[in-house]
Structures are given as C-alpha cells and as structure tokens.
Write a structure and sequence with these properties.
The chain is α+β, with helices and mostly antiparallel strands and 371 residues long. It contains twelve helices and 19 strands. The protein has a domain of 117 residues. Strands 9, 10, 11, 12, 13, 14, 15, 16 and 19 form a nine-stranded mixed sheet that branches. Strand 17 and strand 18 form a beta hairpin.
Length: 371
C-alpha cells in the first residue's frame, strides 16, 4: 500500500520503488501524493503495477524467518548495515547510518539491485552517458571518473537539437531503444568551467571547492584503496558523505527541462580514454568485453562483491541474471556502430560527432581527422 510517509518512484513504468528514505538520484521519477492518488511529478503517469523494491529503515525487515534473506553488516547497528529479503518485491532494511547518507545508500546498495531488477525484466542498466541527436542516439562508455559527464554536457552545448538522456547510467533494450536516467551528476569545478557555467549560481552547493576536491577522482580512488584493506569502508564512506555531501546539483539546473529527452533509438557507441591518440572501429567481442568491464567497475564498491552472489530475482540466480545481461548486450552491440577514441586531454567531443554524423568509416589513426 502507498502512503504519504513514503517516497514512491516509477522508472518509466518498468520498475516501481517505495522507500522510507528519499532517493534524490531518482527525484525526476518520484510520484507525488495528490489527494488519494499519486501523480508522477515530471514524466507523467501513475504507479499501476506492483512494487519491485521496498526500502525501510531498520534491520528487521524479515518477519517470517522462513523467508530467504541475506545481510551485510559493518560495526553492528552503529555502522552501515543492510538486510535484503528475497522475493517480490525485494525488501531492503538499512541501518540508521545508511538512511542518513542517501547517496551512499542509493549508489552502493540500491543501484546494484536495480541493475538486476532491470535485467529480470529484459532491460540493461548500462554504465554510460547517452545523447539524442537527429542522426540517432549515441552512447559514451568509459571507466568511472574518465570524463563522460563533461563530454556529454559539452556535446549538448554544440546544438539545440541534441538532447540529454543520461551521464552515468542508461536504460537500454536489446533492440536499441534507450530510456533516460537523469540522475544528479557529481559535478566538479573542472566540469563547470569546461561548459562555461558560473558555479556561483549553484546556490544549493555551498563550499563547492571543498566538496569538489573531496569527491574528485583522487578522493574516490583513495576510498577504493581503503576498501581493499578490510576496513569498514561503507560506514566510512557514509559518514564522510554526511559530513561533506557530494556536489550533486539537479541535472535540470545545468541543462534546462527543454533539453532532457525521454527515449531515442541508439545508433552508435563510443568508448573514450586518455593516452596516445587513436580512433578506430571495434570488434563485437572487444566491445562486449570493454562495456562489461566499465559497468562492473562502476558497481565494484562494497558491499557489491559481498551481496551479488546471493541475489535471486523471480527465481533467477545472480549467474542466470548475469548470463541474461550478457546475451542482451551482445544482441544490442551487433546492431551498433562501435568505436574507440583515445586522446591526450579531454576534448573527445571535438571528434565524436564528426564521425557519428556521417556513415563514413572511421580512420584508424586520429591524425587523419585532426585537421
């Protein structure tokens, strides 16, 4: 039952979530109460189907001990701990510390479960940025903290015909359809300067310089390193983000609602990297290996490796869901133009659209197009 004390999210009518904790990453999908009805605040529509995921504060979500569940715990009740009850819906109980750090709760717990919920429904939640153009949709893939957000925002500025769908995760079908997933980006001063945005207008992000440095690539790499030393990394991360929240403005404050697209057919995928310049087409097997590695890297933070093996959705184990995801990815990649672009610096956008706006083959050497 839906009530006025919960936050309810309907992601394109595909996944329904009820949470006692606000999830700002899903703010544009939140269903707002209006009388006895819940109206979707941005995209339009209602929650008509059953709930797929329920999030509650507390570590006693399993009332019937015969039900299947698993848990992850750090420092007991004072640390970051979760309990997951398998079934339909999935039910997550979270400790008070996690409930107070909603970004860590979403990124480290909710989003990994969403990945497999989407797979169970025949969709892919892919770590990628997505742009809609008159020539079709473009996916940009890279390891975390490479520059996808900056690149996609720069591309948006190139033409009023380009629409933003995502900068971090994109919902895809094996038949090339993309759905937007517009989470608030973790923004840096570099990104704001690169797109010519006056960061002083982001009045909701006080101490932006400090927050940008703490949540920089170096800061996140440091936290990953702590995770390898068997420290209570989820608890430390949650506490750190309570004290210094990540700089995450609403995406609409950066691009405006008129530049947000909802769906588009995908025509191309480009992997970006830094290093010795090269721009070349990729084989199917190479593309599949790289796109899986980039997605796994985005989720590879505690407690992911401790909980994924226990996941079961609609009778399918983690290994079955992983196999389903791989099959869907292979089917999708077979239909796309896939390229690899490596440059010294961060100016990928200067080369990407010159190729994807035409049907001409991509040169194997970047020097051939850098004129």
């Amino acid at each position: 039952m839906l009530d006025h004390n919960s936050h309810v999210y309907n992601i394109h009518g595909l996944v329904n979530i009820k949470s006692s904790v606000s999830l700002r990453e899903l703010a544009l999908f939140e269903v707002k109460p209006e009388g006895t009805l819940f109206e979707l605040s941005f995209f339009g529509g209602k929650v008509d189907g059953a709930l797929d995921l329920v999030i509650e504060t507390g570590l006693d979500v399993v009332n019937d001990r015969r039900r299947t569940y698993f848990k992850y715990s750090e420092l007991g009740s004072i640390g970051a701990s979760i309990q997951v009850e398998l079934g339909h819906p999935l039910r997550i109980g979270v400790s008070s510390l996690l409930a107070k750090s909603e970004h860590v709760l979403y990124t480290n717990v909710v989003e990994p479960l969403l990945r497999f919920l989407f797979v169970s429904k025949g969709y892919i939640l892919l770590h990628s940025a997505c742009l809609s153009t008159p020539q079709g949709g473009l996916l940009i893939s890279a390891p975390p903290d490479t520059g996808k957000t900056t690149t996609i925002l720069k591309l948006i500025l190139q033409s009023q015909e380009f629409l933003f769908l995502s900068d971090d995760m994109t919902i895809l079908t094996p038949t090339r359809k993309a759905y937007c997933f517009p989470k608030p980006p973790t923004i840096s001063l570099h990104t704001l300067e690169a797109i010519g945005y006056d960061y002083r207008t982001l009045y909701r992000l006080p101490c932006l310089v400090l927050r940008s440095r703490v949540h920089s690539k170096a800061g996140r790499s440091f936290m990953r390193g702590l995770g390898k030393r068997n420290l209570p990394i989820l608890s430390l991360n949650a506490l750190g983000q309570i004290l210094v929240p990540p700089p995450k403005p609403p995406i609409l404050s950066l691009i405006g609602p008129e530049r947000l697209g909802q769906t588009c057919p995908i025509n191309a995928l480009c992997f970006i990297a830094q290093g010795k310049p090269v721009f070349t087409e990729m084989s199917l097997d190479a593309a599949l290996t790289m796109v899986e590695a980039n997605s796994d890297d985005a989720f590879n933070f505690p407690p992911y490796n401790d909980i994924v093996g226990d996941i079961e959705i609609d009778g399918r184990s983690y290994w079955e869901l992983q196999s389903m995801e791989r099959s869907m990815l292979r089917r999708l990649l077979k239909t796309l133009r896939v390229h690899f672009l490596r440059l010294e610096g961060h100016s990928w956008q200067n080369q990407i659209m010159r190729v994807f706006e035409t049907e001409e083959p991509v040169p194997s050497k970047i020097e051939e197009i850098m004129v």
